[in-house]
Design the sequence.
């Protein structure tokens, strides 16, 4: 696997504008798309958790509230036949 493909999987937000772009990338296999979207989903869940707990990042690391893409990630996963992996609440 090329370094670029690996990077698309471990850091999809750096390579794709939207989660649906992962689905449309013909260079990725189904399994690679699944991994990339799982990574993106976990990142979004962590951002939501931090935001809900009042943890604010640096100005450059913050995103606008409307920029959260969890719904888009879930829709993209649905397009490839995968379900979201939500963690249960404590």
Sequence:
């Amino acid at each position: 696997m090329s370094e670029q493909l690996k990077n698309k999987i471990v850091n999809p937000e750096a390579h794709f504008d939207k989660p649906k772009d992962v689905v449309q990338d013909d260079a990725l296999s189904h399994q690679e798309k699944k991994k990339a979207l799982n990574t993106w989903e976990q990142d979004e869940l962590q951002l939501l958790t931090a935001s809900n707990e009042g943890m604010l990042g640096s100005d450059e690391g913050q995103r606008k509230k409307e920029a959260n893409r969890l719904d888009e990630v879930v829709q993209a996963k649905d397009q490839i036949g995968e379900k979201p992996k939500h963690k249960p609440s404590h």
Notes: The mean pLDDT is 84. The chain has one domain: 3-79.
